[in-house]
Design brief:
Elements: H1 5-8, H2 10-21, E1 28-32, H3 39-51, H4 64-70, E2 77-80, H5 102-117, H6 133-143, E3 153-157, H7 169-179, E4 185-191, H8 199-202, E5 206-209, H9 215-224, H10 229-239, H11 243-250, H12 254-269, H13 273-289, H14 291-313, H15 325-334, H16 340-352, H17 360-375
Parallel strand pairs: 1-4, 1-5, 2-3, 3-4
Helix pairs in contact: 2-3, 3-4, 6-7, 9-10, 10-11, 12-14, 13-14, 13-17, 14-15, 14-16, 16-17
The protein binds zinc ion.
Residues 52-54, 59-60, 63, 65-66 line the site of zinc ion.
């Protein structure tokens, strides 16, 4: 996939380009910002630019270095992301890749290839929860060695907040590396959740804060994939500037999408023990086996309630979600005092619930009860 980082995040890119031109390249950056704002894609493009032979405003894409970087095959480029395994210190297997099953190893190979073709592809190894201490140990063994070619080594850590999980052993190990930065090396920590990183790490990095991607940029990415305009308009609206979500939405028929949202909202409204039970089980399974789908479905329902809030307060232009305007106006008539902000918080919490090791079917039933209790607000 050819893509131009100066188009997807223009302000960020001009800042990065000026860092390169002034030759003030730092040893550690933190790319933070909402999901789907192009952080990983821009990090890959920045790594390529740092090593491009042409020295233009972006990487040229055609010199020998750029070709190796865009195929993610340069020995100076290290990609790190969560792998399956435990955080415990014992593990004799110093090579973290040895802990992978055959299927996981095969997934990893194809995922890296997908990432090379599409910088918006998300690498998600099954069972992986964090960047492991062994991965950082392995990095420490190799990152101080002299590289075989000229140029700058780039270490990209995706989902970097997972370094801070548990007792933060991985974060502490990385901190030692950041405190003695290897020569001619740039670390880029990429995360949606910078607040989950220890401050000691954050303070070692220059923070580059990404805004959500604008609708026009998402629209042209969808157009490039041949998505028709009416679908594209709906996806842009539902995506909230999140490129991953927009691509994900565009991959399924709009009708199906709309009926999923409608069913979810109806399930909440209609307190029926049989429906609630099967709903809780379905979403419990989804949270485990398709966590991305789970997050997306809840986000869309949040969006629905957000639109109900906009319709009620008269903020915004009001015609954003025409597919649901009838449902929403009925809802607002029936529940004029519903605590919509409270509902938003309840849904936020259920998105995070799988990370907290709760028994999900029960957590989901409680979520339904909670939302209902906010419908009739006594205040
Ligand atoms: Zn180049």
């Amino acid at each position: 996939m050819t893509f131009n980082p100066s188009k997807i995040q223009p302000a960020i890119w001009s800042r990065l380009a000026s860092i390169v031109h002034k030759n003030k390249i730092g040893s550690a950056y933190l790319f933070s910002g909402p999901e789907g704002s192009g952080k990983e894609a821009v990090a890959l493009a920045f790594a390529a630019m740092l090593n491009c032979n042409a020295k233009g405003d972006t990487s040229c894409g055609s010199c020998a270095s750029c070709i190796r970087f865009t195929s993610l095959q340069d020995e100076k480029l290290t990609l790190m992301f969560p792998l399956p395994g435990s955080e415990k210190k014992d593990s004799n297997a110093s090579d973290p890749l040895k802990g992978l099953s055959k299927d996981e190893a095969a997934y990893l190979l194809s995922a890296i290839e997908s990432k090379a073709h599409d910088p918006f592809f998300q690498i998600r190894v099954p069972r992986a929860r964090q960047i492991l201490i062994n991965q950082i140990r392995e990095l420490r063994r190799t990152v101080y060695l002299k590289s075989m070619s000229d140029g700058r080594k780039c270490v990209l850590l995706f989902q970097a907040h997972t370094l801070g999980k548990g007792i933060a052993a991985s974060a502490n190990a990385l901190l030692k590396v950041l405190e003695e930065p290897p020569p001619n090396t740039t670390f880029i920590l990429v995360t949606d959740y910078p607040a989950q990183l220890p401050l000691t790490i954050v303070s070692r990095c220059q923070n580059i804060a990404f805004p959500p991607m604008n609708g026009e940029t998402i629209g042209s990415a969808l157009a490039e994939k041949g998505i028709e305009e009416s679908t594209s308009r709906l996806c842009i609206h539902l995506s909230d500037g999140n490129m991953h979500r927009a691509l994900n939405l565009a991959a399924q028929p709009s009708e199906e999408l709309l009926s999923q949202i409608r069913d979810f909202v109806r399930t909440i409204m209609k307190e029926d023990s049989g429906t609630w039970k099967s709903f809780s089980q379905e979403f419990g399974r989804m949270s485990r086996f398709s966590p991305e789908e789970y997050k997306l479905r809840i986000a869309l329902v949040q969006k629905w309630f957000h639109e109900a809030y906009i319709a009620r307060t008269g903020a915004g232009n009001g015609n954003n979600f025409s597919e649901f305007s009838e449902d929403i106006s009925k809802f607002n008539q029936r529940y004029p005092n519903a605590d919509l902000k409270g509902i938003h918080t309840v849904l936020d919490n259920i998105v995070q619930a799988p990370d907290k090791n709760l028994y999900m079917p029960l957590a989901i039933t409680n979520m339904l009860l909670d939302v209902r209790s906010h419908l009739i607000d006594s205040s």
